[in-house]
Amino acid sequence: MFALALTAVGAVVALTQPWLTKTLIDKVSNEGRIGGLIVALAGLFVVGAVIDALSQYLLERVSENVARDLRKSIGKRILSAPLKALSRFRSGDLLARATSDTTVVRQMLSTSLVQLFSVAIYGVGTLILMLSLDKTLLLVMVVTIVVAALLVVTVLAGIRVATERAQGAVGQYAADLERILGSIRTVKAFSAEEDERTRLDASTDEAYNGGLRAARLGALVSPAIELAVNGALLIVLLLGGIRVAKGEMDIGDLVAFLLYATYLVMPLAGLFGALATLQQGLAGLQRIEDTKMLGSERRRDYEDRGAANYNLHAPTSIEFKGVTASYDDERNAIDNVTFSLQGPGIAAIVGPSGAGKSTIINLLEQFMTPSSGRILVNGASILDLDPFDHRRMLTLVDQDSPLLDGTLRENLLYGRIASELAAGDERLVEALVQSGLGQFISELPNGLDSRVGERGHALSGGERQRVALARALLTPSPIYLFDEPSSSLDVENERLVAEAIRRLAKAHLVLVITHRAALIQSADSIVVLEGGKVAGSGPIEQLSDNDTLVRAMKGAS
Ligand SMILES: Nc1ncnc2c1ncn2[C@@H]1O[C@H](COP(=O)(O)OP(=O)(O)OP(=O)(O)O)[C@@H](O)[C@H]1O
Ligand SMILES: [Mg+2]
């Protein structure tokens, strides 16, 4: 607000200058004493310059603030969005919206809004002063300019459309790049560089064309207005000259009028230039606003994150009652699934690939919602809980054992709140030893401070899997979910992992998805899935004649 007020003051200061000039000329012609006025004029120039600099800085600061707030809100929106909503966007495109589009909006604010505002003040002030000087001349000017403006407005709509297209293409480019970087090994292994480059070039060209079209239209705007205003100026000069010659007008008035008229030229050209930038900024703002449709799965703000308020050692139960769920609303990934698990102990979910095992975990984590049926944890329907609170009861080791770029220590302590971060290095190392990484950690030159690489890819698949397990062992929760925790492990390490899981299951409910005999044999109860349906459930003795189970165990041992 202060910035805008300052701009206003700057405009007023600038506007008094021609008036002083007029007084000056009048005085020269009448009296010849002008020293004081010259000083006043010089003073006004200096004050005007200082105010200009200050107001420009303050307005830039406002635009930076807006850009920061937009980026923060996009970040928050992405973090609280349900997975299903996120999957409707390509991640690269979201990145572009958060970076490139917010930059466009910032530019709009720092350039065009400032211009629009000062033009409004200059314009109105100038018009009033010109009105007091000569009404006829003003009328001539205004008519000429309005005609030109009407033509320009049609161009502005085109700029907006072109910019939206260009920014969309930038998003596409970012998404394509992200796709390539995420699978760079596959791209190279299949010699697909040329194909990928063609794709990239297509979106780059699209952005270029959109940008160029907006630039072409934008380039038309200022000269058109300048031509109109300068034309008007010439007419004023002509008419004014005649009137001065006839003695109907003072020469001082004409000079002041012409000065004000030139004051109008630049801001007016600027005004329409600013309107063009405004269209571009609005296009960016639209793309940012579109991320609102991500929605939020949170029912309360995620800042208020306290210690979890569940009882770690109370017995725990998980129940699925006639649960049906689908990813694409066409094919059911699981169909009318019913089972009941009671902790503490190990519950194994077995079944062929694609049977819907990971889907059970996605449902438990509220990564997706069932189309029908109920899921109860400790007797309460999980859909009645805030996903944020609910997930803190669960510790997940996902199928592809994801780690985050950073050090081993950061990964082991990931997501812990300050009060839980007290784990000393001995506990971290102990968890690694239990997961079969004792040798590994003792040989690392930087120990726990070694970096794991993007998505943990500086580690082998089996190492990654065991770090993920160690992270779970360090995380206190009543329920643990393991999706194929030993799929990349050799027999010896698998034995260690099975042992760690058995220890964990003494006090907690551990749900393990596995094809491995060692883990299946440790299970207190088993759910056999086949084609999205339950093909049997209960203790292993009761299921010994189940084909799927027998095949699962044979296939692995
Ligand atoms: N994100 C997804 N979008 C669409 N369909 C999916 C998605 N994830 C899984 N599916 C489909 O849902 C079905 C069940 O998948 P799920 O991942 O639960 O199988 P799974 O039993 O864990 O298999 P695997 O042993 O290979 O991990 C499969 O037919 C799969 O193609
Ligand atoms: Mg799976």
Automatic annotation (TrEMBL):
<dbReference type="GO" id="GO:0015421">
    <property type="term" value="F:ABC-type oligopeptide transporter activity"/>
</dbReference>
<feature type="transmembrane region" description="Helical">
    <location>
        <begin position="137"/>
        <end position="159"/>
    </location>
</feature>
<feature type="transmembrane region" description="Helical">
    <location>
        <begin position="254"/>
        <end position="278"/>
    </location>
</feature>
<dbReference type="InterPro" id="IPR027417">
    <property type="entry name" value="P-loop_NTPase"/>
</dbReference>
<keyword id="KW-0067">ATP-binding</keyword>
<feature type="domain" description="ABC transmembrane type-1">
    <location>
        <begin position="1"/>
        <end position="280"/>
    </location>
</feature>
<feature type="transmembrane region" description="Helical">
    <location>
        <begin position="113"/>
        <end position="131"/>
    </location>
</feature>
<keyword id="KW-0472">Membrane</keyword>
<keyword id="KW-0812">Transmembrane</keyword>
<dbReference type="Pfam" id="PF00005">
    <property type="entry name" value="ABC_tran"/>
</dbReference>
<dbReference type="GO" id="GO:0005524">
    <property type="term" value="F:ATP binding"/>
</dbReference>
<dbReference type="GO" id="GO:0005886">
    <property type="term" value="C:plasma membrane"/>
</dbReference>
<feature type="transmembrane region" description="Helical">
    <location>
        <begin position="217"/>
        <end position="242"/>
    </location>
</feature>
<dbReference type="Pfam" id="PF00664">
    <property type="entry name" value="ABC_membrane"/>
</dbReference>
<dbReference type="InterPro" id="IPR039421">
    <property type="entry name" value="Type_1_exporter"/>
</dbReference>
<dbReference type="InterPro" id="IPR017871">
    <property type="entry name" value="ABC_transporter-like_CS"/>
</dbReference>
<dbReference type="InterPro" id="IPR003439">
    <property type="entry name" value="ABC_transporter-like_ATP-bd"/>
</dbReference>
<dbReference type="GO" id="GO:0016887">
    <property type="term" value="F:ATP hydrolysis activity"/>
</dbReference>
<dbReference type="InterPro" id="IPR036640">
    <property type="entry name" value="ABC1_TM_sf"/>
</dbReference>
<dbReference type="InterPro" id="IPR011527">
    <property type="entry name" value="ABC1_TM_dom"/>
</dbReference>
<feature type="transmembrane region" description="Helical">
    <location>
        <begin position="34"/>
        <end position="54"/>
    </location>
</feature>
<keyword id="KW-1133">Transmembrane helix</keyword>
<feature type="domain" description="ABC transporter">
    <location>
        <begin position="318"/>
        <end position="556"/>
    </location>
</feature>
<keyword id="KW-0547">Nucleotide-binding</keyword>
<protein>
    <submittedName>
        <fullName>ABC transporter ATP-binding protein</fullName>
    </submittedName>
</protein>
<dbReference type="InterPro" id="IPR003593">
    <property type="entry name" value="AAA+_ATPase"/>
</dbReference>
